[in-house]
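Course exercise 7: structure representation. Students receive a sequence record and must write out the corresponding structure in token form. The form below is the worked example handed out in class, using TIGR01244 family sulfur transferase (555 residues). Read each field label carefully; the graders check that inputs and outputs are placed in the correct fields and that the protein name is recorded exactly as given.

STUDENT ID: A-19
EXERCISE PROTEIN: TIGR01244 family sulfur transferase
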Amino acid sequence: MKINTLSAQLSVSPQIMPNDIANIVTSGFKSIICNRPDGEGADQPSFREVEQVAQEAGIEIRYLPVVSGKVSDEQVSEFDQLLEALPKPALAYCRTGMRSTTLWGLSRAGRMSEEQILARANEAGYDLSGVIRRIASAGSTSSEVADTSHQIVIVGAGAAGISVAASLLARNADLDIALIDPADVHYYQPGWTLVGGGVFNAQQTVRAMGALIPRGVRWIKSAVAGFEPERNSVLLEGCRTVKYEHLIVCPGLKLNWDGIQGLSDTLGHNGVTSNYRFDLAPYTWELVNRFKGGNALFTQPPMPIKCAGAPQKAMYLSCDAWRRSGVLNKSNVQFHTAGAVLFGVADYVPALMEYVKAYGIDLNFGRNLTAIDGERRIATFSSSTPDGVVQTHDTPFDMIHVVPPQSAPDFIRQSPLADAAGWIDVDQGTLRHKKFANVFGLGDAANTPNAKTAAAARKQAPVVAHNLLVSLGQGTREARYDGYGSCPLTVERGKIVLAEFTYGGKLAPSFPTWLLDGTKPSRLAWLLKERVLPSLYWEGMLKGHEWLAQPEMVG
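STUDENT ANSWER:
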């Protein structure tokens, strides 16, 4: 955690963690302001988690969440009032510190000169030139004048973003590409299942973002606030603007931890965990090891979610560990899913049901987790009767693995790029935007009806790269994405049911059935997941090598 001083009364920092509070107290801070909305990042603790530790340490803390790049006059006024009222010195934080600095800069208007505001922010490591223009133009955020301009702009440096950048450069090394993402680190999220199962160490799933951005791509380390596709503009936090000729949008998903009442208050405590967060996956394995019997609950929210098999993977690996340790026969394992079936592609269900029976898992379909009381260890589910009556079910637990509801990020849902449901509105074959011909979308935030997995992004990236070059006149035949997705279902330590399918649930095996029949548990599929796929991700997919991912041409 790096603390940057703006004045004697206020400092700002990137995201703080609960274990940073002790150092914050030692540094003399008396109060904290959180300007980051919950659910923005995969490694982000909730405000409630930070608040609990801060209050125990005697520090006053307030929550003033600001969507990146959308600092309102009302929020500036509220921030100013908090600075006046809270004991000082105060520390404000967000993802990078930029939103907190922006709030401070706008709140100083009329009290400090523009030059003083800009200089003080620069000394702290933040560029407020965009805010200075906003102040000078009485609140205007017009994007007629750009801070920078590029031939191709990519929003999001996750699996999809880095892969498509690398695939573009593999086809034409002279392209002018900028990639926008504020994160310092990049996660191999498919590995978190194995972290929660005690197979991987969490550090095996993370690398520095700067080491992964392809050479020749300009990294704009900022958060996106919105889009003006009619002007070919991306709006960044701090009121900056990036112009483009072609835009690729792949920001991933938002995990709505607050969508389940009480969840943020108890995550990482009281036996409540989730493999969907980097810092919590190790806690899953800790709980599995400590478990001596009782009620173990595993949940799945309404679709769509990333890696729809992940809730079951956590359950099967936990059951296998308990079977090996002799605890399974003392355990009441329950799977509560909002869906109506165990898995969306019927061909894989028989193999999964064999494990459900062997582990003695109690299946509960049509049940959606709505609340958790961590102190009492009670989970509340809702369900509907055939005639539409909503019922609630309070279920005690000794441990619970939770998957939060998920959606496209706010800056996507509120943009002209979104469909009625809030997803990037693209053609499911070409991945070109249905309204804006120079915009493409891929990855988890696109509205394509495929499984939201890294394997899908691996197939989508070459399609987008090829079709964008066609639109630049560097090709004729278009490529098509067939909806491929893969879900290696870890049914026990050492065996996997390798689900591979395209649009409509059509099976799409990568290997002949005599070598690997994905509908049956396989040791070979486990070796693929544990040893081959991580290297394929880091050294292949993210570097533009399209092994087993060559795009299909049409026309």
